[in-house]
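The following record pairs a protein chain with its ligand, NDP.
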Amino acid sequence: MKLKNYQMYINGEWIDSVSGKYFPSYNPATGEAWCYVAKGTAEDVDRAVKAAHDAFLSPEWSNMTYTERGKLVRKLGELISDRVDELAKFETMDNGKLIREMRGQLTYLPEFFYYYAGLADKIHGETLPIDKKDMFVFSSREPLGVVAAITPWNSPLYLTTLKLAPSLVAGNTIVIKPSEYTSASLLELVKLVEEAGFPPGVVNVVTGFGLPVGDTLTSHPLVSRIAFTGGTESARHVVRNSAENFAKVSLELGGKSPNIVFEDADPDNAAMGIIAGIFGASGQSCVAGSRAFLHVDIYDQVMDRLVDRVSKIKIGDPLLDETEMGPVATKAQLERVEQYVTLGHEEGGKLIYGGKKPEQIGNGWYYEPTIFEHTDNKARITQEEIFGPVLSVIPFKDEQEVIELANSTNYGLAAGIWVKDVARAHRVAKAIRAGIVWVNTYRSVSPVAPIGGSKLSGYGRESGYEAIYEYTQTKTVWINTSSEPIPDPFIMR
Ligand code: NDP
């Protein structure tokens, strides 16, 4: 059977790369290619950025009212909601995540478009109570220009939406580079951008590899804003590239997030929260709760429940509704998980569950849910992001100790706290250095709530109203209301 070729989308046209080349995209559940994607070049990027820049300046887009832009963004959300099953299947084919999870994400995705569509005509400045006579001063929020959006493979459409929806309502144009592993679902979504009626050049997609596509895009002189989600090393390249043009950057990177269980927590819920944190999405989530800190008084209760439920996890074909854990997304990712498990043994961790590829499951890139027990929070396996289904469990005795342990990491993205004592919940939530803290829940998201981290987890925020600030800048306008002659021009007024 001939596999489908996906072209790129530039200036409202479906086109081949100037290289004329395509590269395969693999299905992680079988390890086999299922489609081909255009292999973009620096020249393709240049063409896309120029198209986005022209569209940004075009009267059709720049003079469009905020209300009209909001309507287009809302329409896009509605079109997505009509295609949830289809788009979910493309995501699962590409990244191997559960069809249930992708369907759930995509069913909710339109809410992000509706939220930002609703904000479109509320992006306003202020009249400033200026401390000068005869001056009327106001501010407005203006779009930045061309946005370069770079996304990873784990939740392609969700992570693109966080950049796309606020960019568009604010009046920017955008060039998106999806991960080389997961381009298909975005290209399918872009068909809906066309159907919604966005002018050509407002949304563009250049597919291909970090080098040269991501690299050229983030150093392009016509790019004003870079929204990057991915790994720390690529982020460093992106930030260096941004220095060429002083593009404003946001970085959503990885984490080594703590999931802390206090002695008064509900042990059943805590065990479920730990599983959601690290075995949901096979641990391939930026907010993966990869370090569980259990108070010694509740340690055995939580561990018994955790191991019991983990031993029953149904691993298998992510396209089946009953499956609970699918494969990891790439062969390289599987090898990375295997290397960290070897390291876990070498570093003296005690293997409690898993630690190998599951038997009798075909050729896909599967790995068992794996639990290590540690006493050392400094081990590499407890400090470095694995991005796979490997949990480190560490006991603790008191609140101050666990705050220090939780904060002893280079990352600062998310944290979970399982506790009944409300005062303690507030104290610990305040003390944890992370951009998101969940109390008695984990991995909850909403368009209303900002997402982002500190330290090596990056900077800037996506989602929520804050994203509007991230995709606009302030203009201050001074109007002299006096008809008097201008006095001494050599003195600042
Ligand atoms: P990478 O950093 O390898 O890739 C992310 C994106 O950056 C891809 O599109 C990639 O292209 C591109 N890229 C790679 N090199 C460059 C470069 N020099 N210049 C510009 N772009 C480049 O991460 P992964 O795709 O492997 O994603 C997994 C990582 O992402 C995890 O380690 C996790 O930490 C992080 N992550 C963070 C999330 C968050 O919200 N905070 C969410 C999801 C993931 P290509 O793939 O084609 O090489």
